[in-house]
Amino acid sequence: MTDRHHLLVHGGTFAAVGDRGDISGYRGGNAPDGMFVQDARHLSRWQLTVDGAVPETLTPVADGDTARCVLVPRGGRNEPPAYTLFREQAVGDASFVESLRVTSNRPVPTTVRLAVTADADFTDQFELRSDHRTYTKAGAVRSRQDLGHGVEFTYRRGEWRSVTTVTAEPQPDAVEETGTGARRLVWTLALEPHGTAELVLRVMARPHGDKRALRVPRSPAALQEQLLSQEGRFAEGVAFPTGWPELSAACARGLADLAALQVPATGPDGEELRVPAAGAPWFLTLLGRDALLTSLFALPYRPRLAAATLPALAATQATDTGVSEVAQPGKIVHEVRHGELAHFGQVPYGRYYGSVDATPLFLVLLGAYTEQTGDTGPARRLERHARAAVGWMLDHGGLTSRGYLVYRADQGGLANQNWKDSPGAICSAEGTRPSGPVTAAGAQGYAYDALRRTAWLARTVWQDGTYADLLEQAAGDLRDRFQRDFWMPEHSFPALALDGRGRHVDALASDAGHLLWSGLLDKEYGEQVGRRLLEPDFFSGWGVRTLAAGQAAYHPLSYHRGSVWPHDNALIALGLARYGLHDEARAIARGLVDAAASTGHRLPEVLAGYGRDTHPEPVPYPHACVRESRSASAPLALLTAVGGV
């Protein structure tokens, strides 16, 4: 696989195509290849040939919501191409549509034989990600049916059934077997002198259990019109800052991405909702922490995200204990999956609760939404869920018994259960990992804020002063304990975490900025931390590094040990503003906005940690999500923090 991948995203559907618009059926690695719906690859091969040969690329696919390229038959300088092919593709809800226009360059009649080879292997995305795992699928059967105007691919395994249907206008002259399971749709086109012929191919995916009556749009142009209309409605009414056009552009780009990243979910009463997915390609699903932070960032501008996220997470809140799912009563879900492997319990992510911080963030968003909008309906409706979430924090979470929210590494799931969830992300300055139960600093800030906001709800909405007093006391005690146990006087900075024996995990990390956002530190400590985060070892010029440079654990291309995360920096900027450090907040905002300007005003999931002084352009992190909801909403958080000036 030599060409680049280009990602097309719409709701819970994405397609990754190459420079020629082809899908090769590549397996493994960090880059996807195919059309995916609900965690399964519904189109694994989509390859165009002309007169039996792969055409040359005249204009490759460019990044955008629609894939367009120009192709010609192979030839030399002395023999101009006999015809030119204009290819256009787009994805919709569980659908993929392509128009293929062939124009003759000759003054005489010309015959062209076009063929599109298609296949659907229905591979679960967990089989394609580079974790080198294999999964047994006893009794699985794939079948193909010639429809005349196309072909239908079906996959069955027990009660599991998925279908992909490919149709074309005009219908192909033949649907040929290839010997590999794929099918080749073939047309023989007679072109008049300088004449043109056009084909439209449509792909409809029907994942297991999806009974919606969906239709494939008639053309990529029609689908693009729908997407633009959707983006326009989503951004309507948001006042962008006039004094900072680059921030305005980043906010607009972020809102457009958020519009495309909405995926279906269900509320407590079965109501249909649209919530922000975590990101494309591999996380186009509901992740609790990601949806909550995205909704918090967008809350002043798009409160309907929070209004959907809260009931969706309430509906998936754990009510029982489950070992493999890391479920405990009251805990908010970390990840929801709909694929075959999750359905059969071969991965634990159908509903996976391995997150120590989604539960307090749920309470933070519920309180913030009520305060911001004045709408008490969700707080009243979700009172039972909120009290259960508080109960989890106090009981299973460890606040009562250990004084803090604590987690253990999950066998078969996540090594770390805070936002820095990669193996080795929680470490000492030398890079060693803590032993025993881990107490991550940032999660304690979220817990403090959750207790305070829920106390406010109890007092003002639920009319329960006794419960409010209890939570306020718990919040105050947590704050006193934290500043006693986490503060490192030799660094004038809080530890990244405590290990199982209560010892400092002493890496200097960006998580300290989250403590400013939650208000856990007193004014003196908060100001020290805020100014320290803008020193050169932390601040790259594009943003605050996850780990300060100069420590043995630092690596600029590590996922969580030296990279720069836009959402992390958005939280820090909000925290700096909260402590009155407005110049520092503006410095972070400028760095991120400049980084976005270099990539079409879109902030990626994560950047490399290289400094701006030696690298005048931001260096991308090699495996970042192309579109990520927290990063898409980060410019809105910056706007809140600095006011657009």
Helices and strands: which structural class? Answer: alpha+beta
Most strands sheet: 8 strands, antiparallel
Question: What's the total count of β strands?
Answer: 27
Relative helix content: 25-40%
Q: In whole angstroms, how far apart are the ends?
A: 45 Å
How large, in whole angstroms, is the Cα Rg?
26 Å
Count of helical segments? 16
| Shape, per Cα inertia axes | globular
Strand order of the largest sheet: 6-7-8-9-16-13-12-11
Residue share in β-strands: 15-25%
Average pLDDT for all residues: 94
Low-confidence stretches: none
Question: What does this molecule look like?
Answer:
The chain has 645 residues and is α+β, with helices and mostly antiparallel strands. It is 31% helix and 22% strand. The protein is built from 16 helices and 27 strands. The strands form 8 sheets. Strands 6-7-8-9-16-13-12-11 form an 8-stranded antiparallel beta sheet, covered by helices on one side. Strands 1-2-3-4 form a 4-stranded antiparallel beta sheet, with no helix packed on it. Strands 5-10-15-14 form a 4-stranded antiparallel beta sheet, with no helix packed on it. Helix 3 (245-260) runs antiparallel to helix 16 (629-642) and helix 4 packs parallel to helix 16 (629-642). It is globular, with a radius of gyration of 26 Å. The mean pLDDT is 94.
